[in-house]
């Protein structure tokens, strides 16, 4: 429905009209030209052409490990937010080139010369290309006539001064980490109606719009002006729909409006001063001042031939941040943990439809309220009880879910579609699940009668051959039955490993196969060894399987702790636990695989990581710790923050791992007594005193880690000849106090060019490693200081305690 402009006094309305109709003006600056014959090569993130003021850049951005995106991004924001891309569906390898040929053709070729993308069509007469300060990349003639411009070919974002004409559209990404075209569209249709719709992008079909301006026959252009207003105008320049109204000038704020991968169209602003003075990250510091289709996006999307707002067998729920999230019902797991919108699958064997092998005793129900899959019905019953509804679903092999409310019962079958959580629903969802994590393969009692009959018949023929053979086969049959029953007892009744965590239970044999007999070791610690594996039934994705050493007494405690702790957490800066095995003497944890390994290998390798990547890792680690300390249901002290326990995913996002030494605090606790845990060099002073520890021990460890990330060296390097440089924290403080940071940064040009950020990060680190825990900031304060939301005051001398404890050998130094 149309969004009407607010009704205010006449003078206010006139003022608003004037603001909306401000002309599109641009500061006249000479653009840096990309002349005929010029090219850019995808080597690293430094391959780009900047606009005159440096606010925008055009070039290559590395996505994940090794692939490149030809893009335009905000160049003065640390996160380098991308606002346009050419090859999101087909990333290119290192060595690919974008070139402006002598004939005026602008094309992207891979290292073999194959054309990947081309600016087409382009009028003849192109003499140069340029990146403008508006964020528009253009191809122009000798007299500066624009022959092609990125503004006319938007991807998912529009910028101030950009106009969307009839037929124009924005296409959301498939996910936050992927630039491939997704399922949501923002389109100004040829009939003048502005709509938000979703599609089955694999088939190219578009469903009914889930938001509309209702301006058929009138809408002409979507305009984003320099006063921060996005609106729909008619042919006579009249304002038909005030889409957004932020009143934020482009002089003081970076701005963008984007159709995000969750299907919501949002406008964001970011103060330019903050971009210059801090390392703030866009997702945390941008403010969503306005949005379309947020409140009801989970319930307004209905697709008769598709899955709805989320994938099949999942449901959509609006989070506290007013963003829609996709969740799996009990008994289901995501098809792809990295893309929740792909839907969910059952983590148990579905009920058999063989009349003589219904196995109803192997299934039970999990209850959920206010969750429904409206278009998955195939039977409806009235004036029944909830028990009747439950039993009717249990006796029906096709029934996956039954919905009960006010005496009505609806049976639903897989795949479940249009799933949503709606507080106004009031109905009870009965989810059919396998008992005891009942998983494939089924055992003897699960065999169909036909299969058992075949086995018995075959055995009977063989038994007739001789008495001796009969005896041998009988003995073998008895042993086989005992073997299957033993497997059943282990599979159906696994040892309980944790409470409150919805994780998949694996058998030891499954993980033995997945790891090829535990051949590929990728990490080892005091209590465990980590192996690389592949779960064939999970699209062949790699996993990391952590096997606890049962010979170590502490291993039992570590397994229980790590499984229960990380099983309850959910944050993008924590490694996700996928499942566990707690079978007899075998205790294993199954994690998502981190393709870029540990921060230790990344940071202390032969080549220095970019300053940009280090900033992102610093911010990601801080946010992960903030979540553990203040935002998850149980406050958690990690106790072993160090580079080996920070892993990096495909996009080099920091993911905190290894919770084997973690300590949980009860809701009424702020501190606890415990033995020394952690790794030498990262231990806070209070570990060596008879005092309770608090979350401030993690703050101390983060401070040491922050110093290592700033300078790309370990906190202690005993092989150095200069004794003053052995302890990084001491040397860094001396250089900071004496104003000689260039000495410690050496040839780190990127960091030297951002010396104010370096100085600010150093001050934060010194606050974190104060000997007195009460002087250390909380991780919330640390994160706010890192992002520029809080000023950083001058820290006192951190004390010499660091040097005196660095060589104390402590238990629990593990890297697995």
CATH-assigned homologous superfamily of the largest domain = Transferase(Phosphotransferase) domain 1
Quickly count the domains.
Answer: 6
Estimate the strand proportion: 25-35%
* First and last CA, distance: 54 Å
Average of the residue pLDDT scores: 77
Let me know the largest β-sheet. 6 strands, mixed
- Strand tally, please? 47
Unreliable stretches covering 5 or more consecutive residues: 1-31, 277-290, 437-468, 486-500, 551-555, 664-678, 800-816
- Categorize the overall geometry: globular
What name is given to the CATH topology of the largest domain? Transferase(Phosphotransferase), domain 1
Per CATH, the architecture of the largest domain is Orthogonal Bundle
Q: How big is the Rg?
A: 30 Å
The CATH first-level class of the largest domain comes to: Mainly Alpha
Widest sheet, order of strands = 38-42-43-41-40-39
> What is the tally of helical segments?
18
Class of secondary structure makeup:
alpha+beta
Helix content: 10-25%
């Amino acid at each position: 429905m149309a969004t009407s402009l607010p009704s205010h006094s006449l003078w206010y309305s006139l003022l608003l009209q004037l603001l909306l109709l401000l002309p599109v003006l641009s500061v006249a600056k000479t653009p840096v030209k990309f002349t005929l014959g010029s090219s850019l090569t995808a080597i690293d993130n430094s391959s780009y052409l900047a606009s005159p003021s440096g606010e925008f850049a055009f070039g290559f951005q590395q996505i994940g490990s090794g692939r490149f995106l030809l893009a335009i991004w905000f160049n003065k924001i640390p996160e380098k937010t991308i606002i346009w891309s050419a090859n999101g569906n087909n990333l290119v390898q290192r060595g690919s080139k974008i070139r402006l040929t002598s004939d005026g053709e602008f094309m992207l070729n891979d290292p073999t010369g194959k054309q990947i993308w081309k600016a087409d069509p382009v009028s003849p007469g192109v003499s140069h290309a340029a990146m403008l300060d508006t964020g528009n990349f253009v191809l122009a003639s000798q007299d500066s006539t624009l022959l092609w411009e990125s503004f006319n070919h938007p991807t998912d974002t529009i910028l101030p001064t950009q106009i969307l004409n009839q037929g124009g559209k924005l296409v959301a990404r498939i996910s936050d980490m992927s630039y491939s075209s997704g399922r949501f569209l923002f389109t100004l249709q040829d009939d003048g109606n502005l709509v938000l719709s979703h599609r089955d992008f694999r088939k190219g079909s578009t469903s009914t719009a889930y938001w509309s301006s209702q301006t058929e026959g009138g809408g002409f252009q979507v305009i984003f002006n320099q006063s921060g207003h996005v609106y729909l105008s008619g042919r006579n320049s009249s304002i038909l729909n005030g889409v957004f109204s932020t009143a934020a000038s482009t002089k003081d704020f970076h701005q963008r409006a984007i159709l995000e991968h969750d299907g919501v169209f949002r406008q964001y602003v970011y103060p330019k001063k903050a971009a210059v003075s801090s390392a703030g990250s866009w997702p945390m510091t941008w403010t969503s001042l306005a949005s379309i289709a947020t409140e009801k996006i989970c319930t307004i999307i209905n697709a008769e031939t598709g899955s709805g707002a989320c994938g099949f067998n999942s449901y959509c729920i609006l989070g506290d941040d007013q963003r829609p999230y996709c969740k799996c019902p009990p008994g289901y797991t995501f098809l792809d943990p990295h893309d929740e919108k792909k839907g969910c699958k059952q983590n148990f064997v579905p009920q058999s439809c063989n009349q003589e092998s219904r196995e109803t005793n192997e299934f039970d129900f999990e209850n959920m309220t206010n969750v429904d899959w409206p278009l998955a019905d195939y039977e409806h019953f009235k004036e029944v009880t909830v028990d009747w509804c439950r039993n009717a679903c249990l006796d029906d092999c096709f029934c996956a879910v039954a919905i009960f409310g006010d005496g009505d019962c609806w049976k639903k079958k897989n795949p479940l579609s249009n799933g949503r959580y709606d507080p106004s629903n009031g109905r009870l969802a009965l989810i059919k699940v396998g008992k005891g994590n009942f998983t494939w393969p089924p055992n003897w009692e699960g065999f169909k009668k036909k299969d058992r009959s075949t086995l018995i018949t075959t055995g009977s023929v063989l038994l007739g051959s001789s008495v001796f053979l009969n005896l041998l086969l009988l003995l073998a049959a008895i042993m086989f039955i005992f073997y299957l029953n033993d497997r059943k007892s282990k599979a159906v009744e696994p040892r309980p490993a944790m409470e409150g965590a919805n994780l998949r239970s694996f058998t030891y044999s499954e993980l033995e196969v997945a790891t090829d007999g535990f051949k590929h070791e990728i990490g080892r610690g005091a209590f465990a060894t980590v192996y690389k594996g592949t779960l064939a039934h999970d699209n062949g994705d790699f996993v990391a399987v952590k096997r606890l050493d049962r010979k170590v007494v502490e291993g039992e405690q570590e397994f229980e702790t790590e499984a229960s702790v990380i099983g309850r957490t959910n944050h993008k800066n924590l490694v996700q636990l996928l499942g566990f095995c707690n079978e007899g003497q075998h205790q294993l944890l199954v994690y998502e695989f981190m393709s870029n390994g540990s921060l230790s290998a990344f940071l202390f390798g032969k080549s220095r990581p970019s300053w940009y990547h280090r900033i992102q890792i610093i911010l990601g680690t801080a946010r992960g710790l903030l979540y553990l300390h203040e935002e998850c249901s149980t406050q958690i002290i990690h106790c072993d923050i160090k580079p080996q326990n920070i892993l990096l995913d495909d996009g080099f996002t920091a993911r905190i791992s290894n919770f084997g030494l973690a300590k949980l605090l009860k809701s009424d606790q702020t501190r606890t007594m415990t033995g020394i845990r952690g790794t030498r060099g990262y231990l806070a002073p209070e570990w060596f005193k008879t005092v309770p520890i608090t979350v401030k021990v993690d703050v101390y460890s983060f401070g040491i880690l922050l110093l290592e990330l700033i300078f790309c060296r370990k906190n202690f390097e005993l092989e150095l000849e200069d004794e003053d440089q052995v302890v990084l924290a001491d040397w860094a403080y001396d250089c900071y106090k004496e104003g000689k940071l260039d000495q410690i940064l050496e040839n780190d040009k990127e960091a030297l060019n951002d010396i104010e950020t370096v100085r600010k990060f150093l001050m934060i680190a010194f606050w974190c490693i104060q000997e007195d825990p009460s002087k250390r900031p909380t991780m919330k304060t640390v994160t706010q200081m890192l992002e520029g939301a809080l000023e950083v005051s001058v820290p006192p001398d951190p004390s010499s305690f660091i040097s005196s404890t660095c060589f104390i050998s402590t238990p629990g130094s593990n890297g697995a």
